[in-house]
Amino acid sequence: MVLRPPVPRKIDRDDAEKIAIAGLSHIAGDPERLSRFLALSGLDLGHLRAAASQPGFLAGVLTFLAGDERSLLDFAAASGYAPETVGAAFLTLNPPSSGEFD
After folding, report:
1. Cβ atoms within 10 A of the Cβ of 31, count?
2. 57-66 vs 69-79: helix axis angle to the nearest 10?
3. Burial of 97: CB neighbours in 10 Å, binned 0-12, 13-18, 19+
4. pLDDT of 76 over the 90 cut
């Protein structure tokens, strides 16, 4: 018998944005994690608010969380969202190009 990971439910854009905003809040709550996020994104605190309104920013937040297992699991535990839900939210905010996964 082959076990497959659970297939996350489809998440609408509003819910995906809420998850990403919760993720950003989680990142901001840990100075070390925030410093790493800022360094990797090339942002500084003074430009974070303006960057947050740009297309792709929230998907980038989810990419950051998913890129580090400890961050992802910490966020999942703190927020109550399953790790798979973060992936589903990312796909909603950053859908693959046509044919990318065909």
Report:
1. 8
2. 110
3. exposed
4. yes
